[in-house]
Specification:
Blueprint: E1 5-13, E2 19-27, E3 36-42, H1 53-60, E4 65-69, H2 86-100, E5 105-115, H3 117-127, E6 134-138, H4 144-147, H5 156-162, H6 173-183, H7 187-196, E7 214-219, H8 228-236, E8 241-246, H9 257-276, E9 288-298, E10 301-309, E11 317-325, E12 329-331, E13 341-348, H10 355-360, H11 365-369, E14 372-373, E15 376-380, E16 388-392, E17 395-402, E18 407-417, E19 421-432, E20 441-446, E21 450-454, E22 459-465, E23 489-494, E24 502-508, E25 510-511, E26 514-515, H12 520-523, E27 524-526, E28 537-544, E29 548-556, E30 561-570, E31 573-580, E32 589-597, E33 600-608
Parallel strand pairs: 3-4, 3-5, 5-6, 6-7, 7-8, 8-9
Antiparallel strand pairs: 1-2, 2-4, 9-10, 11-12, 11-24, 13-14, 13-23, 15-22, 16-21, 17-20, 17-23, 17-24, 18-19, 18-22, 25-26, 27-28, 28-31, 29-30, 29-32, 32-33
Helix pairs in contact: 2-3, 6-7
Length: about 600
């Protein structure tokens, strides 16, 4: 983009007289007949319009009218933040109306883009009748408020957010109350938090009313809001949408170069289509794109492989049940012994210890350790006979009893490689705020949705703990994922035939609890095409070690199939096939070639010059 751009800084007065700090960028060229298409950028929580100005400036140089503003109570805007609510949404409505009245703006082509708070508010507005061209919410959820206090557990990121200094965010008195309730040991304070936090914030019930296209991007590993809300939203939307779940930068999630470049194309194409009527095949493209984490770990991040699906969940996913057995075993058949239990202490050594003190210590060091200690209970599977691909919501079917009226079970899922390399995958958290001490209770608890490939020969390790920390967490550092319970208790898990606790993992193509033989993974190889990048002709090489049916197809970066190169039985050996794509039929850019042998799929990227 090389257009000369003019910058305008000004304030807008909201319906309640609050002044909002705004900036707009407008190209200095001759204005198009309908005006410039508009992109609004909304900032993340505790930031300001300044964080969005570089993007707004660079997009304006490509011929857009761009707009940024600081949300109330943040940056140099007046007023008080009501913690991402309808209050902030009505500001956005007013700002959109202001832009629509600007003679140089094309009011029929307005896009709103943002992440976290900056994605939640535009999507909320879209579900409450905002008439703009499209929205692109990133790291957002229409159930974000209840996601912060999931299954009775208060996420530490909720506390981080309401604990900002007034130099970063100025809060309403209502939000200050939420902070006090989150710190309290008393059940009635928890009940107030659970009742008031979602009010005016969650909006899943409004999603069917959305009238404008939505591009969704979410991270499996989001430490703030899990992906469940957006997965539910995709089932309710009646407008064109596309959704990506996987590796997204932000909220403590891993990201990779390949997924980042996929996402930047994904976003750009969506923008081009809805703002400039470009990218004609977009609306027929596959709805869901997702990535699965797996070994090897690189720079303390997982690697990811990319997949797509017409529906959610993808087909052929069925539950693998793993039962907890004595001696820390995790087996896909129930325990035969009638009554068996295991347990762990929630070891509070000092009853006067407060949550504020724990937070001040970052849950570490001598002062903390003298007052509270972490305990764990570990279960492990045998080495896995095949690769197991987890896609969806892990659940725990828990029979439990505790000696306290509030008890917490944090369940961590790990992958354990031979040779002691263990890596954290995902988690399920449950806090019973109204427990009856000594009574056996049953609860099915859903974790956050996730996708991960557990590799053949590795073990699945399940850890129960009273303090959900993990080593080498660069985002939460020594803080736990959810605030612990500061009541001393012994928490039992029942594992016998009468009360069989188990974990349920949604696994691709599992039959009777055992994944189908994935030996084909070792029986064929797919090589990088040559030359690459290529002009119109390239060679694709693969080898198979026994006769098999082979499908070799080419997809564009949207996941639409553009060519079938092979679909027949092939003899064992190494094969070379030529792929010819004339420029009349194919646009330059990124493509993927995918080989399927049996149930195993591999894909690689190639670039057409």
């Amino acid at each position: 983009g090389n257009l000369v751009v003019q910058r305008y800084d000004f304030t807008l007065r909201m319906r309640d007289s609050v002044l909002i700090d705004c900036t707009k960028f407008i190209p200095e060229e001759k204005t198009p007949v309908k005006g410039w298409p508009v992109i609004m950028f909304c900032h993340g929580f505790g930031e300001s319009k300044e964080s969005e100005i570089p993007d707004a400036l660079s997009q304006a140089q490509f011929g857009y009218y761009t707009f940024v503003y600081s949300m109330r109570g943040q940056g140099y805007s007046g007023g008080l933040s009501n913690l991402i609510s309808t209050v902030e949404m009505y500001d956005l409505f007013q700002i959109v109306d202001f832009i629509k009245q600007d003679s140089v703006a094309d009011s029929s082509h307005i896009a709103i883009i943002g992440a976290s708070q900056g994605g939640i508010i535009p999507f909320m507005a879209a579900c409450n009748g905002a008439r703009v061209g499209m929205v692109m919410p990133d790291l957002a959820s229409p159930e974000f408020a209840s996601s912060w206090i999931e299954n009775g557990s208060i996420k530490v990121t909720f506390f981080f957010t309401i604990d900002y200094d007034t130099s970063i965010v100025k809060y309403t008195d209502e939000v200050k109350k939420l902070r006090r309730w989150a710190l309290s040991k008393e059940n009635d304070k928890w009940d107030s938090l659970a009742y008031f936090l979602p009010k005016g914030r969650d909006y899943l019930d409004k999603v069917p009313l959305c009238k404008i296209p939505v591009l969704i991007t979410n991270a499996w590993q989001d430490k703030y809001f899990n992906t469940t809300g957006m997965i539910k939203a995709t089932k309710l939307l009646k407008v064109p949408f596309m959704a990506y779940f996987g590796a997204v930068n932000g909220h403590g999630a891993d990201s990779t170069f390949a997924e980042n470049s996929f996402l930047s194309n994904y976003d750009n194409d969506w923008e081009e289509y809805w703002l400039n009527n470009f990218e004609p095949g977009l609306v027929d493209s596959i709805k869901y794109q997702y990535a699965s984490s797996h070994y090897p770990r690189v720079n303390n991040h997982w690697s990811f492989s990319h997949f797509n699906s017409k529906d959610w969940p993808p087909s052929n996913v069925s539950p693998l049940k793993l039962y907890f057995h004595p001696c820390g075993k995790l087996i896909d058949i129930p325990n035969k012994i009638q009554f068996d239990t295991a347990g762990f202490w929630n070891d509070l050594k000092d009853t006067s210890f407060t949550m504020q003190q724990a937070i001040n210590t970052s849950f570490k060091g001598e002062f903390f350790n003298k007052r509270f200690s972490k305990n764990t209970l570990v279960f492990e599977s045998d080495p896995l006979p095949y690769d197991y691909q987890l896609i969806g919501i892990p659940k725990i079917h828990l029979f439990y009893s505790s000696t306290a009226n509030v008890c917490q079970y944090n369940i961590q899922i790990w992958e354990l490689k031979p040779g002691l390399d263990t890596s954290f995958v995902t988690r399920i958290n449950y806090t019973d705020r109204h427990n009856k001490p000594g009574v056996i209770k049953e609860q099915i608890v859903e974790g956050a949705p996730y996708s991960h490939i557990f590799q053949q020969g590795d073990k699945i390790r399940i850890v129960f703990t009273n303090l959900d920390t993990q080593p080498a967490d660069s985002f939460l550092t020594t803080n736990p994922y959810v605030l612990p319970v500061l009541k001393k208790s012994y928490n039992k898990i029942y594992t016998g035939r009468s009360f069989p606790s188990f974990i349920e993992l949604p696994i691709v193509r599992s039959i009777t609890g055992i994944a189908q033989n994935n030996q084909t993974l070792n029986e064929f190889r797919l090589f990088q095409n040559y030359p690459n990048p290529f002009n119109s002709l390239t060679n694709i090489k693969f080898s198979i070690n026994k006769q098999a049916h082979v499908e070799l197809k080419v997809y564009n970066k949207r996941g639409r199939k553009v060519a079938t190169i092979l679909d027949n039985d092939m003899l064992a050996g190494t094969h070379n096939v030529e792929f010819n794509c004339p420029h009349k039929k194919f646009l330059g850019g990124d493509y993927f070639y995918e080989i399927r042998v049996g149930n195993t799929v591999r894909r690689m990227k190639m670039v057409l010059k």
